[in-house]
Each structure stands twice: as C-alpha cells, then as structure tokens.
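Quick look at the format.
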Amino acid sequence: MENAEKEMPEDRFERIGTTYYKIVRQPNAAGELSERRLPWSIEAIRQDYGKDFLANIPKYDGFCCVPAHIGYNTVVGTFLNRYASISHRPRPGEWPTIAALVRHIFGDQYELGLDYLQLLYTKPLQKLPILLLVSEERNTGKSTFLNFLKALFEANVTFNTNESLLISQARLRSA
C-alpha cells in the first residue's frame, strides 16, 4: 500500500446515535465558510476509507444544547453539544467603538444595556427579556447592533425577521 493511502484522511466524521455525519466547511453567499454536519452513509465511508476506518470515528449518544461561554464543553456526558464555542475571550482595555454603539442603541438605558450584554456572556441560561429593536427609520443602528451580537456570539446567534415569523406561524397552523 502506498504511503499516501496509509495516512489518515483530512475528512472528519462523527456518529451521533446511529447516524454518521461528515463534518464539512460549507461556503455561503458571503464567501464565508461555516462548519456543518452532513449525513453520510456508512457504505460511502467504507468504500472511501475501508472498514477499519469506522472504528476510529468518534461516537456520541445524541445531541444536546448546553450554552456556556465560560467553561464551555464540546461534549456533555455522552452527548455532542450543539452550542458552539466562541473564538474570543474578553480582556481588560478600552472599547470606545463598542461603548458608543451600546450607548447609541440603549440611550438612557446604557447601564441596562451593559448588564444585558454581560448576562448574555456570563450566564447564557438566565432568562432575560427579549430585546426588540424597532424603528421605521433607517440608519438607526439596528442592523449594526445585530451584526455586533453575531460577531460576539458567532454561530450561536440567529436573526428572526418578520418573514421567518410568518413562515413559522403558517407551519404551526398547518400542523
């Protein structure tokens, strides 16, 4: 067997419950790559890598979602955590741009805004009021603040638009 054939492939797989997944970095319209798990057949893995490869694939009983930014665990017990680790940690220093953004969004409620952000980071399981940014005016900072939250919490942020809420409502009615 050739040396190249003996090396472990760069492709990564996991078995969650009884389903195998290939971990890929899928490009989006913005040219960014996001990690995704695609169902992959055991037959395709055997054909591509041989039957002995299967024994080295990590196995989990299922998925869980345990939010944490401090003390994050990828695996909780025998379950794979769907909540994603974030790539940065806060550190002391000046942050005038972020402070200006928070002051602009929260206005007189600036301290409340800082508390809200701190709780989102330090205690992601704490129940907090839903923050709605509503204005018919353009260029008020709503999208900028949402993009800031996406940069801060990365894959753990989703944007719900009026359209997505209407689609969800329609699905509930038809169920």
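Next, a different chain entirely:
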Amino acid sequence: MREETGRKCVIFDMDGVVMDSARLEMFGWRIVAEEEGLPDIESYYGDSLGKNPKEVSDVFQRHYGFDGFERLNARVYEKMRDQYVDGHIPLRAGALETLELLKANGVGIGLATGTESDTVYDLLEANQVKSYFESIWCGDMVTLCKPDPELYLRCCEEMGAVPAETYGVDDGGNGILALHAAGMKAILPEDQYHPTPEIIALCDAVLPSMYAVRDYLREKLDLKD
C-alpha cells in the first residue's frame, strides 16, 4: 500500500470546469434539439458528460434510437462558435483565479478530461493556462472514460498524489462517480448539470461557481492569498 505523502493536489475536469464549454454546448444542443424535435435534451447531455466522442455517440443512440450524433454535433458546434470569445471557448468565470491561488501556494494541479488530447491542448494554449497543469490526462489516453476512475487515478499516479488526500473538481454525474470510485474528495461546481440526490451524497461539496470552489479550497487546504 502506498504511504500517504501529505502533498496537496487538486485535479480538474476541463469542460464546464476550467472551460466555459458546457454552457456553450448546452446552448447549441437546445437550439438543435428544438429544430430536430429531440425531447429531454438535458437528460441526454447529463449522461454524456465526461465521456469520449465514441462513448457520447453511443449515449446519443441509446437516448434517441438513431445514429445521428456526428451530424447534429457538427451543427451544435456551429451554434457554439457564434458565442466564442477571441475565436475560441473562454475559461469559465473563476477558473483562472482558482488556478492562480493553487499555483501560488505550491499545490499540485492536474487535469482529467474525456475530451481528446488535440482539442484539450489547443484550448489550454489558446487560453494560456497549459503551464498551470502538472499532469494532463485525456479521453484518448485511457481505455475507459468516466464514470470509470482511470483518468483520475492515472493523474494521481503521475503527480505522486494519494487519491484519498486529493480533491477532484468535476461538473458532471459521471465525473463524480469516477471520483468516488477513485477514492478522491469530490467537488461539483454546478453548471448545466444539476445533480441528483444520489450524486450529491457522493460529493464533499456542491458549489454554485468556480469562485466558490476557489474559496472552498482556500479554506480546506489552508491556502494564502
């Protein structure tokens, strides 16, 4: 059994946590769903969070009974691009301030996302935040994505972090299930997904914003401004 190191680490999901992509993607899906007559798009979207593109396509087919994800997702991204800032998806409000607080206090910072690595690195570099992350694990780098814990466990291992001592920040039910399976402390900053009582019970904290995440971590990790 690995000895506890006492090192302070926090691992973030990307979409809807570091990036303001969940809000923009849900904006696009609502428009496309109305145009296509797709019911209960929020339920589909919640089930898709944390998965890689192949898994998301499978979720779409289970929800709607036809293989139309790639075609409709392309239209969603057209709607999203209308909302981009400086030609790309911006950071979620409060994300940069949270990263800056952690870095200033020597806290290890990781990223665990179901999004493919090319997209992840492009977004991090466009927003000038790639250097904050000591370890980055993406959906095309593992066998299984969330709710499987592999992404989070790989990130912990690379950082030398003990899962039970490490906070994970994820805005989706699949991500919270992955954190729970990894034995980590789960923080859910609500965005487009609103957790069920079962998911809430697995969280150390459910918070309204990334600013609230920053304040929560400041207190729990005894960080200085």
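The beta strands are 9-12, 108-112, 135-137, 167-169, 185-189, 205-207.

See the schema section for token definitions.
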